[in-house]
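Reopening this ticket.

The earlier resolution said the output was attached, but the attachment link was broken on my side. Pasting everything inline this time so it's all in one place.
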Amino acid sequence: MAPRVKLEKAAWLWVETVKPEDIKQEHVELAYRINIPACNRGICRRNCKGNPNCLVGIGEQVWLGEIDENTFHNIDDPNSERREKNIFVGLTNLGATCYVNTFLQVWFHNLELRRSLYKCQNSRAQEHNIDSDYEPQSICEHLQYLFALLQNSNRKYIDPSGLVKALGLDTGQQQDAQEFSNLFLSLLEETLSKEKNPNLQNLIQQQFCGQFFYVTICNQCGRSSALPSRFYELELNIQGHKNLTECITEFLKEEKLDGENRYFCENCQSKQKATRRIRLHSLPPTLNLQLMRFVFDRQTGLKKKLNTFINFPEQLDMEPFLERKLDQKCVYELSAVLIHRGISAYSGHYIAHVKDALTGDWYKFNDEEIEKMEGKKLQLGIEEDIAETGKTQSRKPKCSKGYHCSRNAYMLVYKLQEEESSDSLRTNVEVPSFLQKLVDQDNHKFEEWCMEMANMRKLSVDKGRAKHEEVKELYDLLPAKDGEPYEFIPLDWLKKWLDDSTATKEIDTSIFLCSHGKLHPDKMGEIKRVSLQAAKLLYERYGGGPRLDGSSLCRDCVSERCRVLRLKKQLDEDYKEISNLVKRMPSSEGYWVGKASLRSWRQLALEQLEEDDHESRHSNGQTNGQGPYTNNKFDLDVSGGAEDETETFNEDIICNHGGLSILEAERKLVSTEVWTKLREYFPKAPEFPHIQEPCRQCLTLEQEEKDNEAVSKMMALDQKNQLLNLFHEKNRPTLIKWPQGTDRLYIVPLFFVEEWRKFIRRPTKSSPVSNVGNSLLLCPHGGFMFTFDSLINGEAQHIALLWPNEWEVISRLFIVDKPIVIHCVRQTTADSSTTQYTTQPDLCWECRESFLFQQQRDLREYTQATVYIRKVIEDKMTAKDGTPELNACSSEAEEEREELPKVDGDKDPDFSQSQDGAKRMKLNDSCEASAATISGTSMIKSGGIRRSTRHRKLRGEKALIVSANQTLKELKIQIMHAFSVAPFDQNLSIDGKGLTDDSATLGSLGVIPECIICLKADEPVTDYAAMDDAYQEQLRRTGPWADLSCSQLGLIIWCLGWSGAWAVSENA
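Inline output:
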């Protein structure tokens, strides 16, 4: 089938030979494309919108032929959410909570922990009414309910959002898994300590807590001191090691204390060289071994992951590592391996391999998915198939029988090996009745949901089958045969009828009607012609209307369209003729036409025709300008002159007073022949013959404007000649060195001088200055706001200094509200001479002190201010000789320049006068920087270059945005991101004064906006063992969570992330 545009053009080709009054029924049917052949399936790939008889590609392909029942619904089988037999229950990943799920599965499989938690008092669960949902409150209640669901739920996986929300964790951000484990056990231990049952109060210690001693021996006197310490897990360094035994051996190895790390011996009463080592005293039933894969990189200030292969056994004998031999056995069996898949410490995925304590089978827990390992063996599988960041990949070492090797394992859980016992109480853990009641309630909800989903699937299938039969019945009846009755159905409705995903509404054809209540010819691309039999069945089943049949073809719309199209064609011919006539030599007689109107007259004429056509349409109809009969050449023409379009022809040369515009450049004189043709299209257009005079009022106003410009030029020239030095900034007085020959200087606002110079330079573009405005420099009491010393020290940037003779001129030319004078009084005695400076009016000390107080307050209470951090190396700036950055923007360079002062001979663009023989001023490069003086406008350096008040950033210097209430610690974190220097390696100072108090605010430390803070970075310390010793010493003295409440610990868990990595560093 031909494209839509061709079909629409072909529908109106007959208008070239047929007048509107000669239209017959055959022409109407051509306009509505009634007789276009229908398309056949298989030949037409998609629906032809230009053909109302094309019923192919409207969605019928889905329904023709046999259909699978699964296509009638999008509901998954609810049984896929059901727990499989002999498979554990998974946990939903809430976004980035896979690390939480792994630990929960490990703790669930700790039978003693699960059994003890079930014994915790829970009055809320025991008294719960099954008619409402159970909502746990405390951490123990959440764990009880979660473990009970994991044990006896019918679901394939459950949602741990209740516990995660109670802990305050961010589900969208992955936290540090090791820190979460430590903090959660500490929080659980504190919660259990409040239980009445004494066996539950020390549950965490009994299961996970061991003890070792820090043993220090003085090399001088041999005195030995042992400091006990508890541990819940052993943190083992894996860098440089290949197996678990090496890691444990390094953890217990002897360490020498010498140099600055010497030990203070109480027996010797002085610092002595000593040796220190860790001695294991007792081990818990559950031994957690943290493999320190996530370490802090001091160079980047971030954590990184060590992808080192570590070999570890299934059975671990800890007896060789104990100092004191115990009667009990110290052989441990591997019960869980926690895996981090990924090469980054800030992303990746956590899974857990856990051994079932009852059957000995290994399971892989990957959030919702649970997989049982074959042969009761641990199989790490694809968890080790990750890409390394280095150029070469290390091969996985071979493992002996009973050993495993991993480069992603970050925690190993070993359980103390026990003798096989037939006591079922030690192996079986029963869910208490009050918890089982809650589990049964949840299982009942799950079964109801499964039944509801199954019913929905059945209803969807039944509905789909009925729809299938209906489509097969009606689609064959849709095509309308030649000579038989027909009706029109909207194409969009037919598509929705064949689309099973949307509900079928009643048929609405009201938007296709013209102003005469019939089918509009412009809508034929959105409607289809169907047989009367098919239309009757569709309206009976779905209703709607109004119904459009063969009598709905609108002859009036077709006649009006014919008239408009014929006029458009005539318009193109007239456009060519008028264009040729306008290009001829202009005559002295004719009519004035606006140039903008002349450029867009064809568009205006077409719009008039379109408006006539639009009045006969329904408000929902499309404009003819979008149809196939739109002249493409005309469209391009209109777009080119869109900016000159005018709404009404020839109104662009009418002035505000209703007369002919005085702007001759905006109008053109055309011949009488041209105007006659234009008049046919615009009979109401304003007419101006060539003898028409321009508006007299406009001419008068134009002359007045020219006279005012001449007066402004004369005024500017007169003021410039009288104040030439002030205009060129020549021979300006200064306060640093009082000028000879005068005892007083006058002060005016710098704003006045700048505005006056603007007027002098461009008198026709700027308004003349009439008022000096000295009240800007005075307080409400009429006193002066500045002292002589403050003006010398920088506050002169708002004032301009004048000579007495200049003041006389200004007083005569401008309105002066209040003169301000600085007097220099010299007193000479036989011994010495003194100079005093006074102002008139006198200084207002009260307002001056208030001004200084507010100024200091602004320096202390700022927000979003800029400070500059300059890195120094061995007390030398990183930027060589303070060289500014070469990539400074050009706008800064432009602001640094000051235009050269003009001398008498320089020509001013606004004046035609000049003085011969004048020479340009030369730059004086021999002047030193110390000769810079404070003038009335700015700080002038030698050579006429203005000193910029903008801070010039040096190479290696960076700007930071800070606030006064921000702490020094927060500033150091910003500096770490900008310079990659860790906070504890930063030495900050301002003007030689060190900034050391991390908890103090920047405002209290004297950090003000635009100040420069020097940063000196210490070399990274490689003795991580010393740093760890200091941290362990701090833990022994206070304990990590000694003074924290349950709610505070929950907040700490919420604050996990990279900030937790600073805990070790800062304590160290």
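Reporter confirms the inline version is readable. The longest strand covers residues 331-341. The domain at 957-1017 is CATH 3.10.20.90 (Ubiquitin-like (UB roll)).
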